[in-house]
Amino acid sequence: MSETAGSRNNGSRDGASVDQLLLEAGMDDDGGLRPMLLDLQALAAERPA
Q1: What is the pLDDT of residue 19?
Q2: 28 contacts 22 by C-beta, under 8 angstroms
Q3: What is the pTM of this model?
Q4: Which of 3, 29, 33, 39 is least buried, going by the fewest C-beta atoms within 10 A?
Q5: Are 46 and 7 in contact (CB under 8 A)?
Q6: Residues 38-47 pLDDT 10s
Q7: How far apart are CA 17 and CA 14, in angstroms?
Q8: Which pLDDT score is estimated for 49?
Q9: How many domains does the chain divide into?
Q10: DSSP letter assigned to residue 2
């Protein structure tokens, strides 16, 4: 999966929250899960309220 516009625009802030989530879950070394979570986060940000 690739980065979406939303994850590129807020990459450092969003990436930090995803990194924190993975760290707290003990999954900070899972390289496949991080990009998927970033994509989901970007999709949620684009969804109308």
Answers
A1: 93
A2: yes
A3: 0.62
A4: 29
A5: no
A6: 999 999 888 7
A7: 5
A8: 67
A9: 1
A10: -
* Single-letter code of the amino acid located at 11: G
Instruction: Output the six-digit token pair for 29.
Output: 């070394």
And the tokens for 18? Answer: 């995803």
Report how far apart, in Å, the C-alpha atoms of 25 and of each of 19, 29, 47 are: 10, 11, 26
Contact at 8 Å (CB) between 7 and 35?
Answer: no
Q: Which two tokens stand for residue 31?
A: 């390289």
More confidently predicted of 4 and 24 = 24
Measured CA to CA, the distance from residue 2 to residue 22 in angstroms comes to 19
1, exposed or middle or buried, with CB in 10 Å at 0-12, 13-18, 19+?
A: exposed
